Each structure stands twice: as structure tokens, then as C-alpha cells.
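Record format v2
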Amino acid sequence: MEGEPTLRLRVFDLNCWAIRYLSKRRQERVRLIGDTLRREGFDLVLLQEVWSEQDYSDLKVKLAGCYPFSHYFRSGVIGSGLCVFSRFPILDTLLYQYSLNGYPYMLQHGDWFGGKSVGLVIMKISGIIFNVYITHLHAEYCRDKDAYLPHRLVQAWELAQFIRHTSKAADVVLLGGDLNMHPEDVGIRLLRGWTGLRDAFAEATRFEGCKNGCTLVPDNCFTDKSELLPFPLGIRIDYILYKAISSFTVKCEELKTTTGPAPGMDIPFSDHEAVMATLHIQRQGQPVGATLGTADLALADVVTEARTEVGVGLRAARRQRYSSGRMAVLALLLLLLQAVAALGTLAGLGAEQPFPKLSFCLLAFLALGVLALATGLHLFHTMEVKMLHGTEDQMWMALRALQERPSEG
Amino acid sequence: MEGEPTLRLRVFDLNCWAIRYLSKRRQERVRLIGDTLRREGFDLVLLQEVWSEQDYSDLKVKLAGCYPFSHYFRSGVIGSGLCVFSRFPILDTLLYQYSLNGYPYMLQHGDWFGGKSVGLVIMKISGIIFNVYITHLHAEYCRDKDAYLPHRLVQAWELAQFIRHTSKAADVVLLGGDLNMHPEDVGIRLLRGWTGLRDAFAEATRFEGCKNGCTLVPDNCFTDKSELLPFPLGIRIDYILYKAISSFTVKCEELKTTTGPAPGMDIPFSDHEAVMATLHIQRQGQPVGATLGTADLALADVVTEARTEVGVGLRAARRQRYSSGRMAVLALLLLLLQAVAALGTLAGLGAEQPFPKLSFCLLAFLALGVLALATGLHLFHTMEVKMLHGTEDQMWMALRALQERPSEG
């Protein structure tokens, strides 16, 4: 079967950092990205952080000639930021919004407003069915004390589950995006172990670009140098992952990253480096085996580790649910107390009005404000508890399945 | 192949109306449901509106003997209300939360707090892979002027897409739940047309129960009689739908509904009637064909109709987004004006204080409250616009695919 025809697919992945009013030299960079994509003629382009629909429309017009097919995934307040451009027809799409994605009150970390999701586009190229996934997980703002780790792990788990459940009819699965996790992080190991996806960087025959495949590097003029101090070479958080499901093999012939400034320009495309993979897909005589028995043990360890972290998040969320609920009850009690006092005064029980009117009103409004806020927080953390608990349960079910597998074989 | 072994599966579906503190005689009814399920020994039980996790745990304990496998889907503030009990092992689960589900400020219609979702459980029975879906769509509070129709249509669409994308490896697909739609409604036609699911009531060889298979009937002592005035026989909104995907056929041998009071009791299980189907699954020599070309035209009409309704919802959501945004801007302006006036007084520009202190403070607090509320509403309706717009786009893509199909063939 070695003589079977092969398909070569060139994939481009980039976190564009195109936040209207906030990202530096945004329009100039989006133009530059569009020009490069048109000139280079990739087969498939996966972009994240295209937050403005206008930027997407501009790119769509510019790229209509070489990438006639495209899709923008709408979600959240300002969108998912995810879009796909393709040389081949897009047959179908589906969006899955992660159940947890940070906190709406953490305005300085705008992740909640982005409605983080995973987008799926289905394509058929030379008779091969491709399930292409694009995603962007919650950012890591502080590696030492990462308050968002449980949320990011829930996202990694939901991403893995979504890929597993929707890719059963696919021949080849591709995932591109900014996963906001280092290659050895538990979330990446969970995702790779649970889906069987392989890392294009680790598998590439040829590599060219930033050392260790890093995609957030000090050489990029837009990166925050202080954040990268513990990592002098930079970090790798943008990935192209792949696997063949049915009787195909996928190999990564070449992987490239940009290295700061775009070729022949003085500025980079973005604060992230682009990842470019050339994949080589060939039909094989027999299906490639699924995850092996020996790998199951390692996978069970990863799931256990992830489940522990989710449990830590669950306990924190329960504490926050409790304290916001207690705050709401206290505010309600204060309001009731004030109402009783006011009614007492009206009924002429007290000879004179006991409090200055202004302070009394201010206090009532304050109590009302605290009540509203604390109730909102309580509802939010209740949802958070539900989702963390649900994920913990699902992971437990996965562990049981993993442990039972050898005895079945 | 007529001689192939067959599988007979008995399925029970019920909206349990088990809202803590609100549903009448809840604990008594949950006990009754548990007793009946234990006595009758179904193969698969799909329950909705089990809002209290305690009720689920009680049922789980009671049913451990005859239904050793179960799953509760957590989501939203008070849960999804969805749970499954099964005689056969549950291999895997996945939850998909609908992107739209009413409005948090419609407290009297609590749907938003329920986190409406579709749950998937995967089972293997006698070597046949079952994808079982359970769901509960947004309620219809006023049929003549149904403000939630666009949201329910988005849910029906997402449900159909989720089923299509996750059932590729299944042999048999089952869907049970309270769809809150009459059999001829556009959402049901969309769901059935787009997935190819068949209605157990329409296909049943034998039927026994309420006339027309109604599941919300005046004979039930818990139903609101005034709501059912236009429908003297009741309405049918709870369904069991099914289809075979690979080389199997599914037939509905018998369909039953309860008819008000539970057998031998003075009260019904719930305000809804239970739906019980006996399905007959047989292996066939060749795969059953997918949707036919002639059906595509009718399906295109349904998708067009649904898309029009989603468009109506999109325009309404855009109006609400605009008016809440305008309100927020006005409140902000008022606050700024007050700040200027207060600063002016402090700086001694005005000879005397121009307003009574109390009214001034009250006005400021009012403006602040309106600003917070209007901003929240604006964010919410922005998300609503995004999701309606995204669904409209997806439906357009589906229409294009439907129209292109004949030319491909």
C-alpha cells in the first residue's frame, strides 16, 4: 500500500492579538497577516484573537481569491476570536462553549467576556474527511499561583471530550490554537493522552524557528519581557496537534515558527509567533491502533493528577459560594433591620428620629448594593461549583473505564 | 438476515416536576416514581426536572438493585435537572449547554437558572452502540406571543447539530425529553428533518394512553387548566425519538403514556404524563439509507422557516441591546453631571448648595443602580445577538449544503 497517493497539507496557526483599541498597531498587523497569507498560499489557516468582526470581514475580502472558504465563530460578549480560512470547502461547523471561563468581575483579565470555545469545521479534501478544531484556552496570568488552573483544566477536559465524541467519522483530526499551557503541563498531557493527539513540534522531521518551538519569545517586541524572565528562551503555548483515526497515517514533514519580526518587516505579526506545519497524509492498508494498554496506566496517572487540581478548584469555589452567600444574608438582615427601624419611626414609636436621614438612606443603598452584588456572586460560584463537580465526576468515570480496560482485554 | 437476533428495549421518559419548595407533594411523588421504576424494571429511564441532587441520590439508592448505572448532569445555577438510570453500563457521557436559554431577569420564568442542556450517555447493549440523548428545552409560557421562540429554535438547532456530530459511531440513536414543542411546530420539524429521528408515537404499532399521545392533559390534577383551555385534549410536548444509523432497524412495538393518576394511586407522578416505549432493534444486512433527495426540499423549507424566526429574535435582541446601551449612557451622563455639580459646590462656585442633600444622594444612587443594571443587560443582549447571529449563519450554511446536494449526486 506504500504506493497510495499522498496529500500534503500546509497549515498556519496564529494568535493574532487583535483587540480593538488595546492591541498595538493592530490594523497594520492585520493587513500584514492578510498579505502574508495571500502570498504564501497555505491550505488551512487557524486564527485566534480576531476579536473584531470587522477585522475578520476585511481579511475575508482580502483572502477571497486564495482562501474562498472561511468561518467566524461567534460567542460571548466580544466573540470567541476564532476563525478559519480554507482553500477547501467547509462542509459543516459546530461550536462548543466551555462551561467555565474565568470570572466576569475580573475585568483586568478579560477572558470571561471572550466566551472561550472550541470550534469544529469539517472538510473533505481528496476524499479524506478532516475534523479541524480551533481553540483558545483561558490565559495564565501567574504561573506560581495560577488561580485559573482548575478552569483551564476543565476546558482541556471538555476539549478532549468534545474531540473524542465528534471525531468518530473523521479520517484525520487536526487541532490548532493557543492552549496557554506549557508542553509538560498536566492539561496538555491530559488532552494528548485522552485524545491520542500528537504534537507536530515533537514529531516534525525538520524544524526551523525559535528554539524549542517557543511561540512567546523575548525577541518579539510586543511581549512583556518581565513575564518571560523565568524563561529566557520563551515558552511554547501555541500548538498544532494531529492524529489519524481510520486507515490513514499523518506525518509532520516540517514545522516552522516565525522569529519575532515578520519576514522583511520591522514588526511581528502579533505578540505570539505563528506556527506553520506541513503535514503529509497517506492512506494505509490497516487502521492505526488506538491507545495501547501500557499507555493506559500513564493516562490514568494524568487523569488523577488533573482531577486533584479540579478538586482544589472545587473547594475554593465552594468557599467563595459560601462567603458570598453569607454576605448576601448579612446585607439582607441589615436591610430588614433598617426597614423595622423606619417603620418604627413612622408609627411614632420612637419620640424622635434616631438617625440622620442622609446616613440612613446611604446605608440602605449600600446594603442594597451589597445584597445585589453578593447574590450575583453567589449564583456565579454556584454554577462554578456545579461544573467543577461535574467534571470531577466525569474524570472519575474515565478513570474507572481505564482501570477496567485491562481486565476486559 | 431476518433470522438475526433481536433486542427489545423498554424506555421510560418523564418530566418529574421536582422543584424543591415549589412543586406540590414532591417527595411523595419522587418516592412513587422510584417505587414504580423498581417494580416495572425498564431498561432505560430518562428523567427531567430532577432539580434537587438529594432527590437524585435518593432515587439512586432506591434503584441501585435494578438500575445499577446512572448519571446526573450538573449545569447552571440549580442544575440541568437531567438524569439517566440504566440497567446497562454507561460507557461515557458528555454535556452540551445551550448557548441561549431565556433571560436571568425573568425570575418568574426560572429557565435561565436551570442551565438547559442536552446530555449524552453512550452504552453498549448486546454489542450494539447506543447514543442516548436527554434534554429539556425552554418552556413556552404564551403560545400566541411566544417571546422565547427564537431561543427555543436555537436550542432545537444546537440539539440537532450536537446529535449529528456526536452520533457518527453509534448504531442506534435515542432522544427522550420534554421538548416544549407541539408535534407540528417548526422546531420539531427542524430537529426531525435535520437528524432523521423518528417519532415513537407516530411509528408505534400499538398505542395506549392519553388521546393523541398528549403528555400535558386536563385530567392531571397538577396541570394548569386555564393554560390548556385552547387544547381540550391536552398537548404533546414529551417525546421519545429514535433512529438506526448503521446496519440496524429500530421499530416501536408499543407506546404508552400514563393518564393522570398513577396506577392504583390518587396522585399522578408529575404534572406531565410519562412516556413509555418498547423498542425492537434488529440487525439488517445493509445500512439503512440516509435522508433522501426528495426530503431535502422539504427540509430546506423547514430550515428557512426556522431561520426566519431566528432572524425575528435577532432583530428584537438588537433593539434590546441598543436600548439598554442607551440607558447606560444616559445614566453615566447624569452621574457625570452630578459629579460636576458637586465639585462646583465644593469649589465654592455656587454661593449656596443648589439641591437638598438627600435628593442629590438618592439621585446619584439611582443613576448608579441604573448604570449597573443597564450595563449588565447590554452585555447579556450582546451575547444573545452573537448567538442568534451565529445560528442564523449556521442555518444558512446548512441551506447551501442542502441546495448543492442534488447537483452533486
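Chain B has a mean pLDDT of 89.
The CA atoms of residues 129 and 169 of chain B lie 8 Å apart.
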